[in-house]
Amino acid sequence: MAPCCILLLILAILLSTYPAHFCTATSENDEFIRTSCGATRYPELCYSTLSPYAADVGNSFPQLVTAALRVAQDGAVSTCSAVRSLARAGPRRMKGSELAAGAVSDCVGNMKDSVDQLKDSMAAMKGLDHGPDFAMELGNMQTWVSAALTDEDTCVDGLEGSAMNGKVRDEIRRRVVWVAQLTSNSLALINRL
């Protein structure tokens, strides 16, 4: 057989096996994420938001926690912006109630705090190692993510007692509850580190 034919045959064999290997690796990464998300309170949300990071995560639990924190932080940032926009809409969207405007303003403050705490957790995660300070660093992360979750819950609770337009209140509540679920999932994964 001619050398060029042998090279073509080898190339054909390599190309035919590459896609199968690639799909298997992705499937294994997806299964790792699905299994890890099983330990969270909202496993389907966990899987649906973290599976796009399968290639980055691989089978690394610390990378999975980093991705979960990133997703929660991004969600908190976008929710904070949306709530801030509603706050700027003013009393006309909130039936002119000072109580409603105050609840939204408080919610913006809670969401800003939540973003900051999730950022602190992301920074700590990047420097986390199994050295002598591991337990303290992990405890700090757990505290910050728990505080972010508390801020999100406080926002939702503050909306309930206001005389706000039902559609506006429901939209804010929906967004903040979604972020709280992402944050809860992050905390559950951190607790498994």
Automatic annotation (TrEMBL):
Native organism taxonomy: Eukaryota, Viridiplantae, Streptophyta, Embryophyta, Tracheophyta
Domain Pectinesterase inhibitor: 28-189
GO CC terms of this entry: apoplast
Pfam families cross-referenced by the UniProt entry: PMEI
Gene3D superfamilies in the cross-refs: Invertase/pectin methylesterase inhibitor family protein
Protein name listed in UniProt: Pectinesterase inhibitor domain-containing protein
Domain of life: Eukaryota
Family recorded in the similarity comment: Belongs to the PMEI family.
CDD domains: PMEI-like_3 (cd15798)
Ranges annotated as spanning the membrane: none
Annotated keywords: Apoplast, Disulfide bond, Secreted, Signal
Cell compartment(s), UniProt: Secreted, Extracellular space, Apoplast
SMART domains with a match to the protein in the record: PMEI
Keyword Disulfide bond applies: yes
Signal peptide span: 1-19
GO molecular function, one term: enzyme inhibitor activity
